[in-house]
């Protein structure tokens, strides 16, 4: 499944595959897999910009994602997801009630009901 997030580099519209975070206390730039949520002080990068990343002089780059072109979900995963969506979309069966009720009056949001067996 493709990411909806894009590379944060200016004029780059490619999909993001990695997240860059700076650890200022350790003078380290950490490049890892794409974060689950976009954070304000993290930068999403496409594969090309992640590969070409350099850090300021005196800083260390720690790469936590050796393979940025990780395979997506398999066909079995997608079929299972489609089946789950179809199952959730099916209407629930109407509850079977033994006693039938008839509305005989109404006052505002309140209703007066009577069993249809008792007339």
Q: Output the strand order for the largest sheet.
A: 3-1-2-4
Q: Low-confidence stretches at least 5 residues in length (pLDDT < 50)?
A: none
Oligomer: single chain
Number of strands: 6
Kindly report how far apart the N and C termini lie. 60 Å
**Structural class by sheet pairing and helices:** alpha+beta
How much of the sequence lies in strands comes to 25-35%
- Bin the helical content: 10-25%
Question: The biggest beta sheet, please?
Answer: 4 strands, mixed
Helix count from the secondary structure assignment: 2
Q: What is the arithmetic mean of pLDDT?
A: 82
Description:
A hairpin with a 2-residue loop joins β5 and β6. The chain has helices at residues 47-51, 75-89, and strands at 18-23, 28-33, 42-45, 60-63, 101-107, 110-115. Strands 3-1-2-4 form a four-stranded mixed beta sheet. The model has no long low-confidence stretch (mean pLDDT 82). By secondary structure, the protein is α+β, with helices and mostly antiparallel strands. The chain is built from two helices and six strands. The protein has a domain at 1-69.
């Amino acid at each position: 499944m493709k990411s909806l997030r894009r590379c944060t580099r200016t004029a780059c519209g490619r999909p993001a595959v990695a997240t860059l975070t700076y650890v200022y206390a350790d003078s380290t730039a950490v490049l890892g897999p794409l974060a689950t949520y976009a954070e304000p002080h993290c930068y999403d990068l496409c594969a090309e910009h992640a590969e070409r990343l350099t850090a300021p002089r005196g800083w260390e780059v720690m790469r936590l994602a050796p393979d940025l072109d990780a395979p997506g979900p398999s066909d079995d995963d997608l079929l299972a997801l489609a089946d789950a969506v179809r199952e959730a979309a099916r209407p629930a069966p109407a509850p079977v009630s033994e006693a039938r009720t008839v509305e005989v009056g109404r006052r505002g949001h309140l209703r007066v009901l009577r069993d249809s067996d008792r007339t």
